[in-house]
Each structure stands twice: as structure tokens, then as C-alpha cells.
Design brief:
Number of domains: 1
Structural class: mainly alpha
Radius of gyration: 16 Å
Largest sheet: 2 strands, antiparallel
Number of strands: 2
Distance between the termini: 50 Å
Shape: globular
Strand order of the largest sheet: 1-2
Helix content: over 70%
Oligomer: single chain
Length: 142
């Protein structure tokens, strides 16, 4: 089956659910750290990314136009950049780079889920948790 051809709606709903679930895992880490971009932000970013990918697939645009998916991915990356910038520039100071990056990763996880690449999304989520948790622990020890 062509990964860019329309899929049954139940499968599309599953992909959206997976995007939300994986981003929730990342968001919970940020929430436990009392960061501004927490659970809901990460979940919504992943849902939005998966939605834009699925709209392109479900409409048949991905099959009809070879460059459609590339343009959608560029749009997602640019849009998430604005969300990340909003979480970084607060109170005339640069803060929140890690939270902005977590939001960026959540978008990537959403794209992977939207394309049906749940294994890639899961691995990325696990790697993000390792970086967010274990590296924070290591930084405190150094």
C-alpha cells in the first residue's frame, strides 16, 4: 500500500491518537518540570502536525502532487518555529530553549504518526525522554 494514499478513517483516528499519546509523554516530562510548554501544548502541536499530514494524505493531494508533502512539512516546521519562539522570548529574556525544542520534537512525532510511522515516533519519544531526564540528571552531577 502506498503510504501517501488515503487510509480508512479508523486508521486515521488511530494515527491522531498515537500522535497525542507520544506527545503527552514528552509533555508530561515538561509539566513535571513546571515548564510553560507542558502537556497540552505538546499534545496540541503533535495533533496539529499529524492533522496537516493526514489532510494532505486523505485529500489525495499527496498522490496528485509529488511536492505537496514536502510543502506541508515545511509549513509545519515553520509554524512550530513560531510556537517555539513564543516560548523562548519572554520577559525580554531568552529562556525556554529546551521547552521549545520539546515542542519541535512533538511536531516531529506528530508527523511520524500522521504518516503511519509509529515505530519512528515511539523511538523518538523514548530518545527525547532519555535526553530530557537522564541528561538533566547528568548535568546536575557535572
Amino acid at each position: 500500500m502506498d503510504p501517501l494514499s488515503p487510509i480508512p478513517w479508523l486508521s486515521a483516528a488511530g494515527r491522531l491518537g498515537i500522535a497525542i499519546l507520544f506527545a503527552a509523554i514528552i509533555g508530561l516530562d515538561r509539566e513535571f518540570s513546571n515548564k510553560a510548554a507542558g502537556l497540552r501544548t505538546n499534545m496540541l502541536v503533535a495533533l496539529g502536525a499529524a492533522l496537516f499530514v493526514l489532510v494532505t494524505v486523505q485529500s489525495g493531494l499527496a498522490q496528485a502532487d509529488n511536492s505537496a508533502m514536502g510543502r506541508i512539512l515545511q509549513g509545519i516546521i515553520t509554524g512550530v518555529g513560531f510556537v517555539g519562539a513564543g516560548s523562548i522570548f519572554r520577559e525580554d529574556r531568552v529562556r525556554g530553549l529546551t521547552s521549545a525544542t520539546a515542542v519541535w520534537i512533538s511536531a516531529g512525532v506528530g508527523v511520524a504518526a500522521g504518516l503511519g510511522q509509529w515505530q519512528l515516533g515511539l523511538l523518538s519519544t523514548l530518545f527525547a525522554l532519555i535526553i530530557l531526564r537522564l541528561m538533566k540528571f547528568a548535568e546536575k552531577r557535572i
